Amino acid sequence: MRAPTVLHADLHHSHFKRAPLPSDWARQFIGGRGINMATLHQMLRADVPALDPQTPLLFAAGPLVGTSFPGGARFNVSGRSPQTGILGDSNAGGFFGPELRFAGIDQLAIIGRAARPSILWIDDDATQLIDAADIWGLDTVEATGVIHELLGDADIQVAVVGPAAENGVAFSGVFANLVRAAARTGMGTLMASKNLKAIAVRGTGGVEVRDPARFKGASDRLQEKVLGHAEYDIRTRLGTTQLVTALQKMGGLPTRHFQSTTFEHADVVSGETIEAAYKQRSKGCFACSIPCSRYLVVDDDRFPDLHFEGPEYEPLAGFTVRIGCSDLPLALYAVDRCNRLGM
Q: How far is Cα 181 from Cα 313, in angstroms, rounded to an integer?
């Protein structure tokens, strides 16, 4: 089996090198966030600011990512947070994490600052920087489309930052598959500070497991439990937006910044209303048993051509319940704008 591998990328010198991770790390730290934390402990100096070129930006996918195990889709992004100056770490789903592993990468460790706006292009074993001057300034959806055209393959997985990160908004995220956001702690801002607009990955390999028969048995047993769970139907239909109704019943909504814990218009902005009015189909992450995302088409003359995947509960509640807004199309437009701006 392949040893866990890190791809070191020095953007300043355009130098790229693969190396095995320390042999005991898989047992000590497992993968994903664990190996990112161990790497930060080794690489991060206390006196180096978050946006210094030598501050590392780390991407990692855990050992189940890219396998058939239910939910094996996540990747972690870690570094020093521009928001707080201390630990920065965020997580996203979609297909980017599995693609890293298909390219033979368990961790991507980025240092330095590219001389000009760039795309880090990983094509199986080959790695290079591509000029992104014409893409800098585009929103996340536009940039992803241009990168697919530039590289001639719509199946390439892209993690990108938006104009918010480029302009130093401290809480900007890294976006994959258009809406899968590693949104917390400003990792997109850290990425943009390195003149890195996007990371594009194409991997044609697979992920080996030591005992395929036992692994399949464990995967199948978990899959059976998930599909038979009482919450399966509603979570597939509504995703995290089910929480609007659930928290309304529990008295747990952040209404007007927690001046109240119920919202008089909860039914108007609920997941059930979104499903009935705008949902076209369900979508899901790689190998996930619960396709909890929803592709929406919003029919409102104020917002022509408003269609996107989402929203999750947090941005939905943020633009409705938290500020006392019952205009659902307006809230959905705001969510889409934030996704496109990369924050």
A: 13
pLDDT on residue 3: 85
Using CA atoms of 168, 188, 200, 127 in order, give the dihedral in degrees to the nearest 10.
80
User: Comparing 3 with 280, which gets the higher pLDDT?
Assistant: 280
- Which of the four pLDDT bands, split at 50, 70 and 90, describes residue 2? confident
The arithmetic mean of pLDDT across residues 267-289, rounded, is 97
The residues near 217 (Cβ < 8 Å, ≥ 6 apart) are: none
Q: What is the pLDDT of residue 229?
A: 96
Asked if 135 and 147 touch (Cβ cutoff 8 Å), the reply is yes
Is the predicted pLDDT of residue 1 greater than 90, yes or no?
A: no
The overall average pLDDT reported for the chain is 97
CATH of the domain at 293: 1.10.569.10
325: phi then psi, degrees, rounded to nearest 5: -100, 130
Same domain, residue pair 158 and 22:
yes
User: Among 62, 113, 63, which Cα is nearest to 92's?
Assistant: 62
Residues 232 and 197 in one domain: no
Q: Token pair for residue 232?
A: 């399966």
- Extended strands (E) in 41-165: 57-60, 75-80, 87-92, 107-111, 118-123, 126-131, 157-160
Cβ partners under 8 Å of residue 53, min gap 6 = 11, 12, 111, 112, 113, 193, 194
Are 308 and 296 within 8 A, CB to CB? Answer: yes
Residue 107 lies in a domain: yes
Query: By C-alpha distance, which of 196, 143, 138 is closest to 10?
Result: 196
Question: Does pLDDT of 211 surpass 80?
Answer: yes
Domain extent for 242: 228-341
In one letter, which amino acid is 171?
A: F
